[in-house]
Amino acid sequence: MNVPESPKIDGVEPIFRHLDDADMGWRAVKAQKNADGSVSHVWEKWFAFSPDPQYLSLYAKYDPGMIVRRHGHFSPHVVFVLEGDVWFGDRHCPAGTHIELPFGAAFGPVRAGDRGALMFEVMLGDPRSWGDQPELFDAELAANGASVLPDPPLEFPAWLSDLRAHWAGSEKHSD
Known about the structure:
Shape: globular
Strand content: 35-45%
Distance between the termini: 59 Å
Order of helices and strands: EEEEEEEEEEHE
Number of strands: 11
CATH architecture of the domain at 27-148: Sandwich
CATH topology of the domain at 27-148: Jelly Rolls
CATH superfamily of the domain at 27-148: Jelly Rolls
């Protein structure tokens, strides 16, 4: 058996982050207006956002009832539901569910349960997403009396552009 040599790089060390680090506040990344007039969001804390190799690890917090379009990512993507529950299309995912999204696969629409959801996610490459079957998103919004609000502004790293407005069907959901 051929054993590869160590990939060790002198001077490269682990990077430690903590959920309460002062520079890691919650960012609103998606917003919707609910049937009762309230507003729900998807919130994220980005732990690591690397340009080379590209990857993103984050905490995602979905407010109760928050709905996100059916989508995939430009890389493999892993989601682990830590608290609450969420629906990915017709699949109910309570706390403890691990979801693997291979490159080229789409999932959703995503809808948080009555208590919301807290998830840990990792994108193993370009973390941006692409939309799929926007009619499913429209149907889920209508079934819940919700409507999309404009994407909250985000500061992306200089090496990555924001593609949130370019997914299939976005022209119907932007204000």
